[in-house]
């Protein structure tokens, strides 16, 4: 049963979408015309595989506008930019991958994953598999859990609907330690008291997990497999993976990995109201409701697993440490940003709004500007993340001789430790001891990023049980650099460029 309906309190945002597509009503006839409009506009320039490219000026954007955005973004020391993809009218007009990151870097998306979960629920609803007005417990219980247990009684409060879970108004007080401390996540979640169901906002990644379990139970496939068949393959996305819970379901609220361009494809599909190369991937009705404000956290509106920006007519999938899919129907633009942002006074998304979308006024191509385009291409070509400074060598570290270290690194984000170092030409070799007592070697460059492929799990602040399940024992691409600030003081930076986190350490080399 398809549960999508158009209630009156959702019409303002919906009308904005209609106006942007030159429609005056959201009737069946108007929907057909809208689909035809998108097919004419986009189907011809959406080749299989990669997205089409164009210059900014050809799509009505000044290269200098984008360059000013990049200049500011790259000079905020609290933001490590991993990648930026900017689309207008369905064309990539700029891509930025500061070294050591690359176009094919696959990064963990944190809570951007939630938006993909919302899309999966929508596709399942379109197929008649989920009624979003039904209680969530209708879909999340397996044979392992007895629905007649005492935890299901009304003393806990009314059971939230799928819609309540989508909008983060389940009435269940968020418990961010639950995923770290137990393995029976569904049971533990639904035996919690529920209050103000459908009205009180409470952002919780575990609600997205319930949606993942629901999709798995009604489709007979995992959330990832369902999206792979119904979204990823139609969009030629073949670089995605998703973490798995102790219960065997994809985590839903976090744990999805893919490249920037794959993220951009999904953002573009949403901008096109579900149309991709002439095919309706997900219904326009679902996307209209998904990108309508249903709840509010006190600062920002929230739809179905996606944020509605303050202007009310643009949207963002938003993940920890600065991961974004930014969707702007008015400007016909999509921007994907991935980064590692820590305690920055400003977000990458706010810089995007300040420097780019506020400057876009019409669709007309701009005159060709060779100088501006060349300046922009230089930034795209030569951008690099800041490397560790200092000296290349220390008299205390001999060439190809391991110098053992006292283990005092207590960084809680990773489970391994650097136990010795040795000079190796222009590189420094780190010997790392894993929890399994295996030794791994990672090389760091001086004045350049040295690439490694090592089976070493990245630093990861999410401590959920079963974390990184689909990634364990696989090689990670690690780029390292180093510098000595004194003979005794070594600073090392490691970038996990196919995950998206970094490791910094200060190693004290004691004189013997």
Topology (elements, then pairings):
Layout: H1 11-20, H2 28-42, H3 63-74, E1 79-88, E2 91-96, E3 107-108, H4 112-126, H5 137-140, H6 162-166, H7 178-181, H8 185-190, H9 205-219, H10 223-232, E4 241-242, E5 256-258, H11 260-271, E6 275-276, E7 279-280, H12 284-290, E8 295-296, E9 301-302, E10 307-308, E11 315-319, E12 323-328, E13 333-341, H13 348-355, H14 370-382, E14 403-404, E15 417-424, E16 427-433, E17 439-445, E18 450-454, E19 476-486, E20 489-496, E21 501-508
Antiparallel strand pairs: 1-2, 1-13, 3-5, 4-5, 6-7, 8-9, 9-10, 10-11, 11-12, 12-13, 14-15, 15-16, 16-17, 18-19, 19-20, 20-21
Largest sheet: 8 strands, antiparallel
Neighbour order of strands in the largest sheet: 2-1-13-12-11-10-9-8
Give the end-to-end Cα distance, rounded to a whole number of Å: 74 Å
Helix content: 25-40%
Count of DSSP strands: 21
Which class do the helix and strand fractions yield? alpha+beta
Q: Can you tell me the CATH class of the largest domain?
A: Alpha Beta
Residue ranges: pLDDT <50 for 5 or more in a row? 1-40
**Domain module tally:** 3
Give me the CATH architecture of the largest domain, please: 3-Layer(aba) Sandwich
Which strand-content bin applies to the residues?
15-25%
Radius of gyration: 24 Å
Give the overall pLDDT as a whole number.
88
- The CATH superfamily of the largest domain is known as DD-peptidase/beta-lactamase superfamily
Shape: globular
Q: Helical segment tally? A: 14
- Enter the CATH topology name of the largest domain: Beta-lactamase
């Amino acid at each position: 049963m398809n549960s999508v309906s158009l209630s009156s309190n959702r019409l303002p945002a919906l009308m904005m979408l209609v106006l942007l597509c030159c429609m005056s009503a959201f009737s069946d006839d108007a929907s057909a015309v809208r689909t035809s409009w998108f097919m004419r506009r986009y189907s011809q320039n959406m080749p299989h595989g990669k997205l089409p490219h164009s210059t900014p000026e050809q799509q009505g954007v000044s290269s200098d506008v984008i360059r000013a955005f990049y200049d500011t973004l790259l000079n905020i020391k609290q933001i490590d930019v991993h990648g930026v993809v900017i689309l207008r009218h369905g064309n990539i007009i700029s891509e930025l991958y500061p070294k050591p990151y690359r176009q094919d870097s696959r990064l963990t998306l944190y809570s951007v994953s939630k938006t993909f979960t919302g899309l999966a629920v929508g596709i399942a609803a379109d197929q008649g598999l989920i009624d979003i007005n039904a209680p969530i417990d209708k879909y999340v219980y397996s044979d392992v859990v007895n629905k007649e247990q005492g935890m299901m009684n009304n003393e806990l409060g009314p059971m939230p609907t799928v819609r309540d879970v989508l909008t983060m108004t389940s009435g269940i007080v968020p418990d961010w330690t639950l995923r770290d401390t137990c393995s029976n996540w569904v049971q533990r979640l639904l035996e919690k008291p529920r209050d103000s169901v459908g009205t009180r906002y409470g952002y919780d990644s575990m609600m997205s997990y319930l949606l993942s379990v629901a999709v798995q139970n009604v489709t007979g496939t995992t959330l990832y497999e369902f999206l792979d068949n119904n979204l990823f393959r139609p969009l030629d996305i073949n670089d995605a993976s998703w973490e798995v819970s102790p219960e065997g379901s994809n985590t839903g609220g976090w744990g999805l990995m893919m490249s920037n361009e794959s993220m951009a494809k999904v953002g573009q599909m949403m901008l096109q109201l579900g149309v991709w190369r002439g095919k309706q991937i997900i219904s326009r009705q679902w996307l209209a409701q998904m990108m309508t404000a249903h709840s509010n956290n006190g600062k920002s509106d929230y739809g179905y697993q996606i944020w509605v920006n303050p202007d009310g007519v643009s949207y963002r999938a938003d993940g920890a440490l600065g991961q974004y899919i930014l969707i702007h129907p008015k400007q016909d633009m999509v921007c994907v940003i991935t980064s590692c942002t820590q305690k920055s006074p400003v977000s990458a998304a706010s810089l995007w709004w300040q420097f780019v979308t506020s400057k876009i006024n019409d669709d007309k191509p701009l005159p060709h500007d060779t100088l501006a385009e060349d300046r922009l291409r230089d930034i795209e070509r030569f951008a690099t993340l800041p490397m560790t400074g200092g000296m290349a060598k220390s008299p205390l570290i001999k060439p190809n001789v391991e110098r053992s270290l006292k283990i005092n690194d207590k960084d809680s984000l990773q489970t391994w430790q650097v136990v010795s170092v040795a000079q190796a030409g222009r590189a420094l070799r780190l010997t790392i001891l894993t929890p399994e007592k295996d030794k791994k070697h990672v090389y760091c460059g001086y004045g350049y990023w040295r690439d490694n492929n090592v089976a070493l799990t990245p630093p990861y602040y999410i401590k959920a049980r079963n974390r990184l399940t689909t990634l364990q024992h696989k090689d990670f691409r690690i780029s390292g650099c180093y510098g000595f600030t004194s003979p005794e003081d070594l600073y090392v930076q490691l970038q996990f460029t196919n995950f998206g986190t970094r490791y910094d350490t200060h190693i004290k080399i004691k004189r013997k």
